[in-house]
Amino acid sequence: MYGKAFAPEYQGELGAALNVNSSYEDVLATADRARHDARTDLERARTSLAVAEANRRLGRVDDARTAWQESYRSARTAGDSGAMSWALWSGGTLARQCGSPALARRLLAHAVALADAGGDRLAHGYSLAGLAETGRIQGDYEAVADLHEQLLEQARRHGEARHMVWAMSGIAQMHRNTGDYEKALELFEESARIAADGDDARGRAWSLRGVADVLSVQGHTERALSLLTEAETICRAMDLASALAYNHKMRGNVLFRAGRYAEACEVYAGALREFEAMREPRGTALARLGLVKSRSRLGGSKDETLAELDELERDFGRIGLRHARDMVIAFRAELLPSASGSPAAPYGATTHRSPAVPATS
């Protein structure tokens, strides 16, 4: 069993004023006022943490960075290891969002150690989850699959719906990326149900995106688009700028798979503008890949496409995104003759990632 979702990053008086579904503009306004009125270093650390998280979710990376660093300094002055851990968790999560996985791992590992020293179970779990997600996003499934399962078991044991949703959707994503679509769909759908029952709107939005992805791969285009529209409504209500951009990028994927390349181009271009405005390199590169592939399908120059693929492969390699780099390589293989001299696979042919559908970003 599990209870209603809650947001442990809203601490002290903020915990009573805000909840897991508060819009991030409201969170920012409330936390800013509380930070201004803070009387102690610990209060300042807690309110700055909420400011950092709100700005991060809104895509305001400079303000988020300033706030988490302020939170950490205040927590260190207060001598509170748990508060220091939460600040580093926020900083590590921001670093991952900004395409710096090595920095993310350092900050999150330090956060784990501080949470352990301070006996803060939730900060410890969230920081471990951050490390697991960093590895998963980079495609290092072997290293983090067991950790995802352990964190899911801990969340179940303590009845924490929000962390159950996070862990389950992460495991589902790994199954999806390795071609086990039925298992992925089962886990994404269960994750969406738990999020709905636990009143975790953000978790439901991410889970619906996963369900839509798998349904699209299986050819259920209109159902996938409908689920993405539902998730988009949630993202807009909560001011989830990054999640909204990823939702739009996924809509581009769905349209691409359905052969609706002109529509996909338009949606990918919009997502690209959103990611660039937030300076989020992972999303930027993924949206660019979708745009390049769509334009190629519409008859774009092969030489220009190959040049852009080379650049994207370097970007994905720099960020450390193995799965995305594989997608670039797979698409290039469709454009070029193989090393054996046989003709390139036609558009829409199968790839090593799926027995039935072309690789998509």
UniProtKB/TrEMBL annotation:
The keyword Electron transport does not apply. Residues 339-361 are annotated as: Disordered. Keywords: TPR repeat. TPR repeats lie at residues 165-198. Pfam families: TPR_12 (PF13424). InterPro entries: TPR-like_helical_dom_sf, TPR_rpt. The keyword Lyase does not apply. This is Transcriptional regulator MalT.
